[in-house]
User: What shape does this take?
Amino acid sequence: MPADVLHSWFRAFREIDDILIVHVDLTPHEDREAHAISWLDEKEQDRQRRYRYDRPRREFALCRAALRSILCSRLGCGNERLAFGASEHGKPFALVNGTEAPVSFNVSHSGKHGLIALAPQGRLGVDVEERVTRIDLDGMSEIVFGPGEQADFASVGGREKFDLFFTLWTLKEALIKALGTGFSLDPSRFEIPSPMRHGARKDIFRFPHMPNVGWRLEYLGNADFAAAIAHELNPALIRGEGEGT
Amino acid sequence: MASVEERVGDLVEKHLGISDRSMLDAKAGELGVNSMDAVNFLKAVNEAFGSDISPEEASGFGSLRDLINRLGG
Assistant: This one.
């Protein structure tokens, strides 16, 4: 198998300032998956085997191997020196020779698409969702949207409503993933800024319970999938913006 | 009347595409269910059982068995 075929399952998708976003092709491909598994350490191979179904096994192997390749390149280390730890809610972080590495990253996958986001610092979250029709959009909106979001969602119909659901979902999940809490944070307790609910692609966001921390929020969706990133802003940069510097 | 376990199993099959009932005891992380499908499934459970389980509460469940126990099964 030529190396370019084996390695062609991930490639740069977007660069936003110091954030790199990589797309991972999760189309079933036995050779790629076997090659990806060979990059994983013993602990990761155990985890990959523990998944009960082929789809999550494939998602984990292809995304984790892509992440290893990107991190090794960025950190200048060999694959065997790279390992991963996890926070209380399971958010992973990179270790090189047992020491936490100076890089932030987050991974998401849905259907045939995975996204990996990396930045030098600051908490970072990414979410990608294929726009599927099996979801009860109205029922889900009552669970995950706040009052203003529900009002905007109820005011539109058809394709616009369908797209708005996935836009808001990915923006909210990117924020939750950046925070690293999972759904222990009720997603209906914060709202996406109104301009982004009406078509703006980016904005600054603040959680009601932590107003001193700003987050860069950007929608990355295209015709194939909905996607978003959230990145914790450097407090010095926020002060600078306010001072007109 | 079907048991809580049978009713949850039917909803798991319909909304998560998992038909193997032994998966009711698998660790949640081993099923590889994404958050959107998980919340959609939770909504269906709340409708079927008249329950009010939030995503916040459900995030503490380690397996589908924990959900069945929460529903009184």
Summary: The two ends of chain B are 13 Å apart (CA to CA). Chain B has one domain: 4-70.
